[in-house]
User: Which sequence fits this backbone?
């Protein structure tokens, strides 16, 4: 098996160490990749830093064409990318194909933004002292972007950092998750084939404590964009100094199913929203608050639909729930569920583990102080809870340290707006689950869910600086 090289310093390179990438389902080695160290990372950062003027001078047309070519490359090799995602992350193949389709759109959206407006005229004469003055602002790239990405979307979450960086005119140093680096390496191949300058893209694979710290603390990196755990995000925020930072962190995805909800719509979306990618999605459905008048009906139908889900080898087309990313995570979830049961929770379906596979699990009789409710379970586990009125539901849903997205099911527009105004989340998704995301919308949370916004246009804003220009015409 040929060892995958890393690309930094303008060329593909070997390093001193090698990392095995394994299939989470059976532990078999999928591929092998060279592992970077501190010196490699510093070299990659210096290379990107030296390319700032080159990348920043690309025209809107050039950046748009490069991004369109990347999208075309992904389209032409879609099944290969999907299989790679599935093999190294454990994601069911049907969802891996969906991730590739979304990544294609992300790069196309990035191309549109690259070719779009880059500033606007400011009406200075709206101020009494602004008469006979003309002003406008323009956006300029911040410089080197350090991108740190997780395992659960090894293509599209990388695309959400690299696509906007190219659109903004910023060179990139990318650190993908060590468990899923092969997809990112293949994407770098696509970026180079599309004609992006070689020194503008660098990929280093290795531990966050080594590579991540070098990126976060480097004076040559102007912007950190990170998706991952709150603990690591807080460390990054503490260490990054004055550089710009976007943090996409955790959640414990709540849903409100009100008494007038369309259950034919709510049930299937809550099922997929809770268990796709084995629940390893930061906006996965985790806790469903159901009005007491429809609780029993919803519970019985929900249990039935989840019990019928395909479970097992992620490469099988009929599988919905594949393995967790590794055995350690599967055992952690098992411990959380067992703890909840010991405190009074009841398992309605699932509640068992087979190696790294944790079966889709529904719990009831849960309380707000259980880990499966108050923390981010990040697994195929959903808790069902009752409420009697909207104010109670709002209080229960908001009683969390997180605030990324929340789903609301109701057929009453007044109820929808009542909840929209009171729910403390970055996104309120009406008549759908919090798992809904399209790649051009502003995406991000409040409280411990993060800082800043993604969604291509909004990410480009975060990767550029505003330069105000004023002409005195007096």
Assistant:
């Amino acid at each position: 098996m040929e060892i995958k090289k890393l690309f930094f310093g303008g060329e593909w390179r070997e390093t001193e160490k090698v990392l095995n990438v394994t299939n989470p389902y059976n532990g078999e080695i999928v591929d092998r990749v060279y592992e970077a160290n501190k010196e490699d990372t510093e070299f990659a950062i210096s290379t990107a830093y030296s390319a700032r003027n080159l990348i920043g001078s690309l025209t809107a047309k050039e950046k748009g064409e490069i991004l369109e070519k990347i999208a075309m490359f992904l389209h032409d090799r879609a099944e290969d990318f999907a299989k790679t995602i599935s093999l190294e992350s454990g994601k069911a193949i049907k969802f891996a194909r969906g991730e590739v389709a979304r990544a294609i759109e992300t790069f196309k959206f990035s191309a549109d933004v690259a070719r779009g407006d880059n500033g606007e005229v400011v009406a200075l004469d709206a101020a009494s002292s602004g008469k006979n003055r003309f002003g406008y602002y323009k956006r300029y790239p911040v410089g080197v972007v350090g991108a740190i990405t997780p395992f659960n979307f090894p293509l599209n979450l990388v695309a959400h950092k690299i696509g906007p960086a190219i659109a903004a005119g910023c060179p990139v140093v990318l650190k993908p998750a060590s468990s899923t680096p092969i997809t990112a390496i293949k994407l770098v191949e696509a970026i180079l084939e599309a004609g992006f300058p070689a020194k503008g893209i660098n990929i280093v694979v290795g531990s966050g404590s080594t590579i991540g710290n070098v990126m976060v603390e480097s004076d040559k990196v102007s912007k950190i964009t990170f998706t991952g755990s709150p603990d690591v995000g807080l460390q990054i925020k503490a260490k990054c100094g004055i550089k710009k930072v976007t943090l996409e962190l955790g959640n414990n995805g709540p849903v409100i199913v009100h008494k007038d909800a369309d259950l034919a719509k709510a049930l299937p979306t809550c099922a997929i929203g809770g268990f796709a990618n084995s629940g390893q999605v930061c906006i996965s459905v985790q806790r469903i608050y159901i009005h007491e008048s429809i609780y029993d009906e919803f519970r019985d139908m929900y249990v039935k639909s989840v019990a019928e889900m395909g479970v097992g080898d992620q490469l099988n087309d009929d599988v919905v729930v594949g393995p967790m990313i590794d055995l350690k995570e599967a055992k952690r979830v098992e411990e959380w569920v067992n703890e909840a049961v010991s405190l009074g929770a009841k398992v309605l379906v699932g509640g068992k583990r087979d190696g790294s596979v944790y079966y889709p699990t529904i719990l009831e009789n849960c309380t707000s102080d259980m880990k499966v409710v108050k923390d981010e379970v990040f697994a195929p586990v959903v808790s069902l809870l009752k409420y009697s009125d909207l104010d109670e539901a709002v209080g229960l849903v908001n009683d969390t340290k997180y605030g990324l997205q929340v789903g609301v099911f109701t057929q009453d527009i007044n109820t929808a707006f009542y909840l929209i105004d009171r729910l403390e989340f970055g996104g309120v998704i009406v008549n759908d689950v919090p798992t809904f995301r399209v790649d051009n919308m502003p995406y991000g949370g409040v409280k411990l869910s993060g800082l800043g916004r993604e969604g291509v246009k909004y990410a480009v804003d975060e990767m550029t600086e505003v330069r105000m220009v004023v002409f005195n015409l007096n």
About this structure: The longest strand covers residues 133-141. The mean pLDDT is 97.
